[in-house]
Amino acid sequence: MASGSWTLEIESSVEASRLFKAAVLDWHSLAPKIAPEIVVSGAVIEGEGSVGAVRQLNFSPALPFGYVKERLDFVDRDKFECKQTLVEGGHIGSKLETATTHFKFQPAAGGGCVLKVVTTYKLLPGAEDDQGETMKSKETVTGIIKAAEAYLLANPDAYL
């Protein structure tokens, strides 16, 4: 079985604390409001949003799969950092055995932040590492962050 990883860095003019809350911790609630053409609904289905909690995001036909379930493995609300594992849906079971993503929002000069994303994965036997899929994943994460950023800039009192 092959394994791999990819990294991504995204700059934002929004404060780390607000973007962390909106784009990661509360994305299941915010996404259907600001990206309904992609995310139809979302909810925490196990736990209460702390370590071990599982949330489900349900997608429109715009994506090649109907849903994902993500488990929160680590969260540090003071350092704007978390790690989550894809536990069901997406490409789990068809191309991937496991996939984990680590998000770290670092405050930047001028009040914005830099998000560092590291995703690691293990492919199922016979599945090939597809650079096109990696590019789509990076574009999706960037789109999520930029959508949340636009929402926060338009709503300066949200997620304080």
What would your notes on this structure say?
The chain is an alpha+beta fold and 160 residues long. It has a single domain (3-154), classed as 2-Layer Sandwich (Alpha-D-Glucose-1,6-Bisphosphate, Chain A, domain 4). 26% of the residues lie in helices and 41% in strands. It has three helices and seven strands. The protein has helices at 16-25, 27-34, 131-154, and strands at 3-12, 39-46, 54-59, 67-76, 81-89, 96-107, 113-123. A seven-stranded antiparallel beta sheet has the order 1-7-6-5-4-3-2. A hairpin with a 7-residue loop joins strand 3 and strand 4. The chain starts with a strand and ends in a 6-residue tail after the last helix.
Could you name the key traits of this structure?
160 residues; alpha+beta; Alpha-D-Glucose-1,6-Bisphosphate, Chain A, domain 4; seven-stranded antiparallel beta sheet; 3 helices; globular; Bet_v_I_allergen
